[in-house]
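User: tokens in, sequence out, please.
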């Protein structure tokens, strides 16, 4: 049972626009500061994916479970890099290539004559490919750079930065931002004493 209500956003932020909101929900299945992990077991991952229409009757095996959780971590890392305008390093690219190797995408032509990438295959690999295709769509539309991960200690919450100049850093200034700035202030005061 999920402890945090679906669609919850710290500080009253709006969720990411579709289809990126599903990626945001996936990454935010883990809230380290509250010791919550909504996909802590293969069964929980199966239920989460089914509830969102990403998985049919297929079960989640141990290898797919590990790959899904690793993808969640990598997507959070990419969003964290958006927060600080950092590019992926060689290590991250290699880890991503390893995890995404089984997530196949195929090019399709839609009713309007536009090309789009759609998940191929079946089971969990298809579900993960569906999440990756949403990230690709967001990159193409320019919304991915606004998907950020809060740098607050023990937070990492993915939030959508809808600010005019995409300059938000914290999931909530009144929560993580304030805590971090207060801790820095106290540290400076102690060093001055």
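Assistant: Sequence out:
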């Amino acid at each position: 049972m999920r402890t945090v209500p679906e669609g919850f956003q710290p500080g009253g932020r709006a969720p990411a626009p579709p289809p990126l909101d599903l990626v945001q929900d996936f990454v935010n299945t883990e809230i380290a500061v509250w010791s919550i992990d909504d996909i802590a077991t293969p069964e929980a991952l199966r239920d989460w994916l089914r509830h969102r229409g990403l998985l049919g009757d297929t079960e989640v095996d141990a290898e797919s479970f590990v790959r899904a959780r690793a993808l969640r971590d990598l997507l959070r890392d990419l969003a964290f890099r958006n927060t600080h305008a950092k590019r992926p390093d060689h290590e991250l690219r290699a880890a991503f290539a390893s995890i995404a190797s089984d997530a196949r995408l195929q090019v399709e032509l839609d009713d309007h004559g536009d090309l789009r990438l759609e998940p191929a295959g079946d089971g969990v690999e298809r579900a993960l490919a569906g999440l990756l295709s949403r990230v690709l769509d967001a990159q193409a539309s320019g919304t991915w750079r606004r998907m950020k991960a809060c740098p607050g200690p023990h937070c990492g919450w993915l939030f959508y930065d809808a600010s005019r100049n995409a300059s938000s850093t914290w999931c909530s200034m009144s929560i993580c931002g304030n805590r971090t700035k207060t801790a820095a202030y106290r540290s400076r005061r102690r060093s001055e004493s």
